[in-house]
Amino acid sequence: MAETVYDAVVVGSGPGGGIATYALTKAGLKVALVEAGPRLRAGVDYGHHDMAWEVAEERISKGIGLPFDSVWRHAARNHFTGVGDRPNHGMLVALGGRSLCWAGHSLRFGPKDFESWPFPYSQVAPYYSRAEKFMGVYGFKDGLWNMPDGEFLKGVPYRPAEKALWRGVQKLKSGGAKMEFVAQRKAMLTEPHQSRRAQCHFCGMCSGCCVDAKYTSANTPLPMAQRTGNLTIITEAWVTRILMKDGRASGVEYAMPNGDRREVKCKALVLACNSIETPRLMLHSGVGNSSGQVGRNLTSHFGCWVYGFFPEYARRDNVNDDGTNYHHSLLTGLNWDKPNPKFQGTYQVQCGSGWPLGVLPIRDVKGWGKGFKKELREKNLGNAGMNMQGTLLQSSKKFMELDPSAKDRNGVPLPRIHLHYEDNDVAMADDMVETCERIIRAGGGQLHWSPGKMDPSKLIIDYNHWVGTVRMGKDRRTAPLDDWGRSYDVPNVFIGDASVFPAYPEKNPVLTNITMSWRMSEHLAELARKGELA
Amino acid sequence: MIHRRELIQIAAASALPAAPRHFGEGPLKFFTPAEDAVLDRLADIILPTDEQSPGAHEAKVSRYIDLVAAYSTAALQQRWREGIKDVEAAARSRFGAAYSTLTRQQQEELMGVMAAHEGKPENALERFFEMLKPAVVDGYRFSEIGTRQYMRWKGNGGALSYRI
Predict the structure, then answer these.
(1) Counting C-beta atoms within 10 Å of the first and last residue's C-beta, which end of chain A has fewer, N or C?
(2) Cα(A112)–Cα(A96) distance, rounded to whole angstroms?
(3) How many pairs of residues across A and B have Cβ atoms under 8 Å apart?
(4) Does residue A181 surpass a pLDDT of 50?
């Protein structure tokens, strides 16, 4: 039997790999999608409206957090080693990857954010529009110049205590502060949609949406790709090596769950494994790194929390405002017009209030007894949380490489992540804490909890937003990829995940990842049509 | 189409015995009944019944802690055990009697001793309070009483009342 050579192999089925698979199969290419994890079914393998008390024993016995039946319980943890300030890297190894667990936040990068990319926002805008229509993104038209409006479904407003934050922002703005407070934009259906996914029923469990109202690779692009008849999906296959022949990628080697190795051959290779795993595979295979930049330029979002307390909401009766997860609102527009003199880059603050699933988010109230019980309840009813999301300064101190000794079960070196918070990062966080405290007070609230003066021990990385490690650029000496996401060194290797971002604003990565991967895939399909990849 | 492996998974899942639907419905997994009684009272003093809602005793918070302890590391299990012993020792040195025989008022007085330096514990008994209190709050917030009666959460479990 002749060996099958696919037109393209896509490695990884997260946001980037899912859309690449769809775009390539739609263009008529025969595609094999290789995914390390199994197929999970929404509402079956994850996503149940179980209440915490019903499932406490099962969850506790398996070391799974309560109460959310998040798809994160299928996550692969500790698949990395770290150096420095508590780096973190969580992977969801399953068909759909982290598109299964993402919070859905879909914010366009703006004209300013693209200034250090090889192409301007105006070139990307039509791709954004198409991605938003394809995914189904809700939002309001806010008219913000550096977070452009998109193709929105009916928006979801913010909750009562978040309106108090809005009031605070208006007050500071009237005093000259440059900031905006808007409702979140998320890839969840609030209206009938061409994908025919179910509409959101506002249960608050978005990290494991049980009805597929939230966009995932598994519920939208992959079924559509399968219907083209051009797709083969290989699950539970950990890619261990890129196979090379005559300076081109000829396929990949993967490990089966029992450790056996197999190969799948292709004319073009798309890596979309995430910003840690893609460079790991390239470094381990010795592919595409003549620039020496693979694994470098690592950045992510980092942050901390500030909680406000608004007494006016503390004594009202509970209302049903579970909505879509915790964050319904967003503080943005900071340092867009002119840079902050104290630090480079900027941050946004994701805001929320209430208690999705009825669970108290606020636990840290002093005391015990009746007074404590009453105060704990009020602090929860009147809470509004502000979660900073800032961009880490890209520098030589932040990068990933292969661990010199630790290996995974397939014998491949684990990625080793170097994270060191620098003065710039701490200064940005300091500014955020100060800004949030001012907003809370201006909105009529009290400070419930704040980290105060910042230091690296108070900062957290729990966003899984790493980007930058295989960046695009005009110059092959400083970037591994051209401005489409194609390797300069190996012309039939393309990258479909967020590692291609040359620079990173404060905004969440997935929408732009999908947009870029779709753009790259169409370019790939065009090259294939012209016979340049044969 | 359902794949063969999925059918096996579905079959395996449906063959599982029904798990208890509330913590506290099964037998104790880690603590002795005497230890559980101490924890139950400690929890109820931290979150007592008031005019608004029932307290930690009714919410079976001690049984949540039993689950947590049962699936903890040996070192943490040891800390729970030692903590309860410290409470017993404090009861004897202060009131000359076993904790469970003290009046509620005496037990509350003891809680005041345990919580004397909350956030900055100075001895083993105070350190035990730092471990106990978050577990009590968690057990209560994960209980049906904590969710439905204390927070009066309405939510969307079948009642699709949220509108945009």
Answers:
(1) N
(2) 31
(3) 129
(4) yes
Contact of A139 with A105, CB cutoff 8 Å? no
CB contact under 8 A, A53 and B156: no
Report, in angstroms and rounded to the nearest whole number, the Rg of chain A calculated over CA atoms. Answer: 23
User: Mapping DSSP to helix (H, G, I), strand (E, B) and coil, where does residue A348 land?
Assistant: strand
Task: State the angle between helix axes of A510-529 and A121-135 in degrees (0 to 180), rounded to the nearest 10.
Answer: 100
- Given a cut of 50, whether residue B2 has pLDDT beyond it is no
- Give domain status of residue B94, yes or no: yes
C-alpha span between A288 and A494 (Å, rounded):
10
Residues in chain B within 8 Å Cβ distance of A319: 154
- Tokens at residue A371, please? 């007074």
Between chains, do B157 and A370 touch, taking CB under 8 Å as contact? Answer: no
How many structural domains comprise chain B? Answer: 1
Q: Following DSSP, what letter does each residue of chain B receive, concatenated? A: ---HHHHHHHHHHHHSPPPPSSTTSS--SSS-HHHHHHHHHHHHHHS---SSS--TTTTTHHHHHHHHHHTS-HHHHHHHHHHHHHHHHHHHHHHSS-GGGS-HHHHHHHHHHHTTTTTS--SHHHHHHHHHHHHHHHHHHTSHIIIIIIS-----SS------
- ipTM (interface pTM): 0.87
Predicted TM-score (pTM) of the model is: 0.90
Q: Which domain holds residue B141?
A: 30-150
Contact A368 B115 (CB under 8 A): yes
Secondary structure of residue A2 in the 3-state scheme:
coil
Per-position b or e across A501-510, b if 16+ CB within 10 A of its CB: bbbbbbbbbb
Q: Which two tokens stand for residue A359?
A: 């669970």
Q: Can you give the pLDDT at residue B157?
A: 47
